[in-house]
Amino acid sequence: MEYFIHLGILFTIYTILAVSLNLVVGYTGLLSVTHAAFYGIGAYTTALLLTQTGIGFFTSIVLGVVLTVIISFLIGLVLSRFRDDYYALASLGFNVIVFSIFLNWQELTRGPLGIPGISKPELFGFSFSSNFSYLILTIIFAVLVYLVSSFIVNSSFGRVLKAIREDEKAIQIFGYNTQYYKLVIFVISAGMASIAGSFFASYITFVDPSSFYIMESIFVLTIIILGGLANLRGAVLGALILILLPEALRFVGFPSDIAAQMRQVIYGLILILLMLYRPQGLKGEYKI
Amino acid sequence: MNKTTNWIVGIIIIAVVIWFGFLNKADDQIPSEKETIKIGVSIPLSGDVAFLGEGVRDAMLLAKENLGYTKYNYEIIFEDDQFNSTNTLTAVNKLISIDKVSVISSLGSNLGNVVSPIAEENKIVHINIGASDSNVAEGYYNFIHWTQPSEEVRILVEELKKRGIKKVGIFVWNQQGMVAVIDEFKNKIKDTNIEIVAEQVHNEGEKDFRSSILKVKSSGAEIYLLATKSPEVEILTKQIKEAGISIPITAIESFELSDQIDLFEGNWFVSAASPLNSFNSEFNEKYERNPSFGAANAYDLINLIVMASESKKTSTKPTTEEIAEELLKIKSFFGALGELNVMEDGIIWSEASAKEIKNGVVVELE
Amino acid sequence: MEIFIQLTINSIIAGSIYALIALGFNLIFGVSKFFDLGYGTMAVVGGYSVLYFGKMLGWNIFLSILIGVILAGLIGFLINKFIYQTLRQRKASNLVLIIASLGVFTVIQAVTAMLFSSQFQTLSQNIGQNTYNIFGGIITQIQLIILMFTIVIMLALAWMMKKTMFGKAIKAVGDDEEVAKIVGIDTNKIIAYVFFIGSAIAGLAGILIGFDTGLEPIMGMKLILKGVVASIIGGVGNVYGGVAGAFFLGFIENFGIWKLSGEWREAIAFVVLILFLLFRPRGIFKK
User: Fold this and answer.
1) Among residues C231, C244, C239, C243, which one has the least CA distance to residue C273?
2) Could you tell me the pTM of the whole model?
3) Is C260's Cβ below 8 Å from some Cβ in B?
4) Residue ranges per domain, chain B?
């Protein structure tokens, strides 16, 4: 039972990541490969505050978001100048840079040693130490993020985003400052990722840089591509499948010397087959 | 080929692949009346450091093969964590709640730190391999099988003093184990006249050390400490030689584990947890390669667990509490690493010593 | 001064490897217009073929190298034929192609690891390699060979592009695929050949790296990232530019490490990338 609760917690954290990334990639059409960086900033903020100071978990979420907003604003400023492939590459570059900082700024982050002993959240004396209570907490926040995202995409702001995706030049002619829109959604998306990071840190009780490398960004990207870009429900579905699939394969019982690689092969084949036969993903409306 | 056919072809391919997996399902269903003690192992079997996990896995399988008669059956379940903390957490959750293992093993300080609190909470015996962070052994159920940095550094400093070496140049792998050792080293030399004149850090997978070497060379170091593992240590050594440098080199453990041991001819090093030749040759014979970091510990781990489980005079299989209790009693155990002692704090202690490579083999220093 | 020379040589050595990758990568990008993330694994294919035929089966080393290069080219050719070409015919966007190439990368890497284990392995046996002294700096035999190959291939490609019909066709397809089709060029065939050649070059690079340091299944990722950075610095699609960018990258990395320390190597490469993207997205050379 614990195993399934654990999967549930992972699922909700990745839902937050997927939904927030979808805002930038699916709705605005910007191929951002740096989501893990903001996930990491949130995680490290919570990790440091909870282990070094008396600041509580929920406050650390807020502070994490603030820090992420500032950093993503700066990164977003640079990224707003690019489009398509170059945007993807530059964002990937930022992910590597942020990761390198986690890894090498050892005075702050302890580098590869990581930060152990992160405590669970407490609210009005109630401690969320059981996995089940933690799951409830993450579900609440995941729902909040989903609702906020839903609100954004259905508003006039969201319509501008989709217009940018379809034809940025066209909408610029109408007088819209596209750079502003791209920057704002990027920052919002980053802030949400930071929240996911805070939950991750407290749940796993230990953070180290390896969780926030480009592979993680690519994983979240794969989730929303599978689920369907520009579809929030699709993002949730994608997260569900990509969390459960490796677990299902675990029970298939490949001989242990090729089991792990076999899973990679299946994973890669899924990507290829999806692109060949259903690039809009399972529920997508936006055919990339 | 219309779209539907393509879909079907795609699904068939994936289905065949999975079915192939089922066919080759490891047959662990040994029909017997013996009870089974399950050991769960979370190690990297894919990804960057898959070879470390593979070494551990192969060593454990070898150990299981070598078991003679035992009161209980021992089933080892391997899960791939890709050396990633999230995957480790998932693997451990699955092993504990689905497989109902009695013992769990993990690799390294980082993952050890993820597993320890859960092991303690669920009362599962946890033996970590490779943790230099003693935090991982906190709690009754947590153990570490690895020579602690303090012990390795003690020998290192001793040897440096013996040889009158004052200036050390360091190449260190940016990974928790080695960084911890170097931090300890810096601490220990504070009251000595040994100083670190150069320090070059490299990440996992680095292949080009040439400019780093240049920098260390220009610092005037009398010896180079290669605090890293294979394959970086071989590449580094090769490139040092190619640069025409004949300054002596030393390392912590990695020389003896190398497939290219001749590269290090004539150099001394700190040997902590060095596999006895018998283990090395047995592993080599079966798998046609040298054991990697931690493989010997993994071999011992299985034997330690078996010993702890078998020693209780009960008719039913021991509880996890009993296994932990018996483990703590083990002293002077002779395994692949020589003599082991399980200490009160959960650290399985093996001594370090200084050795050297002479004529292509590892020999003790006088 | 001696240090400066050695650093320069180190930069050139690093640069020549990146240059080989950039050459093939740019060639392919020039006609297909997308960042093939699976390209790096062609180096893996080449290198491991030589490991298999040359070291494991004990065949003649030069024959093995030839097989390795051809095999890499062949696999690149097949991947294009069955995956990328199909997608291009459906007018799939670059995003789709990139993701598909990511899938290719994952599969090839995993299969290689299954067949050969993820252990690091070298192609060469001899430890005492011949070294040459150049103005006080040291370079090994294999490194010189890498440099030579880079120059030779670059010149050969340049000659091909300028002087042969095939080369002109490639340029035409690169400039405007639609127009090329109208003029009667079989663009699919041209692109297919380009994939073969480009992948073969990568295979060669992998083999050379295997001799210089060694092979591991995941080396494809690092190589492709360097190749991409080099291409952008030099101007994507520009064959000479990629080479220049590669050497530039080699210099910045090595001189940068002199100032900082080895662990920042990757970060340096990407800071350079971003700076170029910001201020000179077309690369050093205006195409």
Assistant:
1) C231
2) 0.84
3) no
4) 30-147+278-350, 149-272
Chain B residues whose C-beta sits inside 8 Å of any chain C C-beta: 46-48, 50-51, 54, 174, 199-203, 205-212, 214-215, 218, 230-231, 234-235, 238, 241-244, 260, 262-263, 289
Q: How far, in Å, CA of A218 to CA of A32, rounded? A: 9
Confidence band for B185, pLDDT divided at 50, 70 and 90: very high
Indicate if B149-272 has the same CATH topology as B30-147+278-350: yes
Q: Looking at this predicted complex, what is its ipTM?
A: 0.85
Q: Å from C250 to nearest chain B CA?
A: 11
In one-letter notation, the amino acid at residue B68 is: G
Domain ranges (residues) in chain A: 2-214
Q: How confident is the model at residue A199 (pLDDT cuts 50, 70, 90)?
A: very high
* pLDDT reading at C287 higher than 50: no
- Please state, in angstroms and rounded to a whole number, the distance separating the CA atoms of residues A41 and B214: 35
Taking an 8 Å cut-off on Cβ atoms, the answer to whether C7 and B218 are in contact is no
Q: Would you give the DSSP letter of residue B318?
A: P
How, if at all, do strands B249-251 and B195-202 pair? unpaired
State the average pLDDT for chain A.
87
Distance of CA B320 to the CA centre of its chain: 24
Mean pLDDT along residues C42-50: 93
* Residue C267 belongs to some domain of the structure: no
CATH topology of domain B149-272: Rossmann fold (3.40.50)
Would an 8 Å CB–CB cutoff place B48 in contact with chain A?
no
Residue with tokens 């077309």: C282
Residues of chain A in Cβ contact (below 8 Å) with chain C: 31, 78, 81-82, 84-86, 88-90, 92-94, 96-97, 100-101, 103-104, 218, 222, 225, 258, 261-262, 264-265, 267-272, 274-276, 279, 288
Question: Which residue in chain A is spatially nearest to C84 when comparing CA positions?
Answer: A276
- CATH fourth-level superfamily of B30-147+278-350: Response regulator (3.40.50.2300)
